[in-house]
Design a protein that fits this description.
The chain is mainly alpha-helical. The protein contains 9 helices and no strands. The N and C termini lie far apart (73 Å).
Amino acid sequence: MADAEHAPGATEYILHHQSFLSNKAPHGIVDFTVINYDTVFFSVLLALVFFVTFWMVARKATAGVPGKFQNLIEMIIEFIDNQVRDSFHGTSKLIAPLALTIFCWIFLFNFMDVVPVDLLPAVARGAGFEHLKVVPSTDLNATFALSLTVFILIIFYSVKMKGLVGFIGELTLQPFSSKNFFAQAALVPVNFLLESVTFLARPVSLSLRLYGNLYAGEMIFLLLAALTLHGISGLASVGGWFALIGQLGLGLLWAGFHLFVITLQAFIFMVLTVVYLAMAHEHH
């Protein structure tokens, strides 16, 4: 009875699940001195899952009739390859493997959101850890790290294909231009301001889109879990049982829809990466 009286409310429950296993509490929204150990652990773990899975399938691949799992992996590779061929018209040995890695790694990130919200945190508490967040894409540090990596590649390929002068020209000589030298020189600051906003918006939009969608999805799972826990406390009544069954049904429905969302978000991140790198290869 005493445990029920001191059980955390929905707000405390959600805030607890929103806390990272970190080296210290962050100061503000952005604090580069904070290390979220759970994000690092699951990011590396899921990268190993992706690498080992594809390596084992490639190692045991047969030219005959493929098994079901090999067939699934080949379908994924063919799907990504077709997307790259449709969007990227240059020549590069990096783009297709990069697109495959981004899609599969982010999908695995997002798939962790379907794992019951209390399962792994309960295991972590048994091991002596107070907090644990298992979805790396709900960490803004992780999504920004992914998008900044893409941003660095965009700059690298832009300079490689157009030269430093050509890259600077793209940022300063459009969208407004003039045949008069002095007029064009006066337009350079305006062009640079406009193009810089568009250029810098790419990594920001990539990271915030992925983070926002997965954060919202995780929040819905937490709200449903909080309602379910509240329903369990009311099982003494018939209404409590109906509420619990309804909440579990909503949880299953949302999990099914969320599988579509997490796949779509991985696909969008991958496609935009390929499109941005294709634009970096183009000569204007």
